[in-house]
Amino acid sequence: MARDSRNKEPKKKGGLGRGIEALFEDEPQVEETEEEILDLDLSDIRPNPYQPRKNFDDKALKELADSIKENGVFQPIIVRKSVNGYEIIAGERRFRASKLAKKTTVPAIVRDFDEGQMMEVAVLENLQREDLSPLEEAQAYEMLQKNLGLTQEEVSKRMGKSRPYIANYLRLLTLPTKTKHLLQYGQLSMGQARTLLGLKNKDKIDEVAKQVVKEGMPVRKVEALVAQLNAKKQTKKTTHKSAFIRASEHQLADKLGSSVNISESKKGKGHLSIGFSSVDELNRILDILGVDLDE
Fold first, then answer.
1. Does residue 106 contact residue 40 with C-beta atoms inside 8 Å?
2. Cα 212 to the chain's mean position, in Å?
């Protein structure tokens, strides 16, 4: 006869040690009380809908499952109550491995988290363990921006990262689909992908990315290739730029995460242009510059 766990109180286990509190250091602690650990049915638990990690290493999961078969789950997962059962806040890898180990229950702590906290903890847990690919990390920052209405500055403060760091990851989302695939599966590095974004002819990114992977080019060689291709694209006669202008272009491009061109006339006047390939990228640049169109 099938077991219906919906009307059954979860089994209570012992208290929680201090280890997992490291994930929630910013939570106010009224006193040093131990949280209650419950044994929850795996069938009543669902993954965090805001989980930024899309790929779980099968070999690592199998190893964890084997360990759980022998020793059980040492660190409880964190969940919140939902309309039907529970949703994971932190610990999806342990949840998946427990199912793989043919377990029926998993130790868990129930906390009262809202949607915003669910998103933040899901991202922070993976960042702390370096579990995300560069593309997944970029998508996580975009999710926080869009779903919580945060600026890049606010995301950087909450994640403990610099604003240029966040901006550079968000730029990866402007890559074409095939290049994103290479980045997602580790064939292309973060450094290589960032360099490819400097190509003036965006339609050639996929083609050049394929060449970079095939030849195993280091970042320095990719930079040289991009510079060479950009130089070929220049059909107009260009004037010699001073070292100051070139350095200014480089610093602005790094800060804004976009192509920058500065031209100057003989009378000391000049022209500054900033490239963007989409409305989202324009909004990102305006955000960095502190331009609020709603004001």
1. yes
2. 24
